[in-house]
Sequence to fold (323 residues):
Amino acid sequence: MMDTPAIAVLVPCRNEAATVARVVADFRLALPGCAVHVYDNASTDATGELARAAGAIVRREPRPGKGGVVRRMFAEVDADIYVLVDGDATYDAASAPRLVAALDADDLDMVTAVRDDGGAAAAYRRGHRFGNRMFNRLLGAMFGQRPADMFSGYRVFSRRFVKSFPAAAQGFEIETELTIHALELRVPTAEITTPYYARPEGSASKLNKWRDGLRITGTIATLFRDVRPLPFFGIAAALFAGTSLALGTGVVVEFMQTHLVPRLPTAVLATGLMLLASLSIACGMILDSVARGRLEAKRLAYLAAGAMTARRSGAAQPGAAAG
Fold:
């Protein structure tokens, strides 16, 4: 006999007094029986008080940064299904049952809500849309699978995904880390299109497109190095080797003709670059073995959390077959 899964709605918030009560009320209505957890990320307004009055479980995280808040949420909250959503009322709470049902029915580990603004420029600005599309393509080229909306802040997770996720991001790059973690472990996922709305009056975005864009780019490069070190260092080796050949070919030809090396600095530079290419490919091969070990450890942590169906079935409980 299967029990009803315990659902936790996780809402990281910073200065969202204009919208947080609405978000809490909408998700409590959409998912009856769920527990809504609002983590007040050092707000200077009444976000925490309004969330508590609306029926949420409120905790305060004094260190700024969405990544740190999500990391603490994942560590502290225990449930079968987790719904992560921003507190700015731009995501559609009415779509939550559909996202949860998809995860539950197919035993998935992550369902991403792909934002559809219906062409409303105020909801999804052209620059943000273009940047999202370019980062999606970049991630597809690096990891072999292109997400539809890697920056979506509206996702549903299984318990085994949440409890095995080694969060390291500090800020808005947390969505990138979630996406890459799913791609690395090749866990079952899905993407479902949901409505996306403009921010209500009085609510301001905390995203800085240039600063956060650079941090996201750095996060992608770092995770690409850590997850796929051989291709990462292989690219560096190819650049070093190509430059070395371009500089050194003329020196070698000249030496074969005259038995002299008049361009000694160029010869030394070309030799040094080729040595760097050799070192890069050697580092890539060594770190590839390390990355395989890390992947195995992550996979074991993921499996140790157990599938949701097993946790909720009587067969998974000790002594369930007795008597």
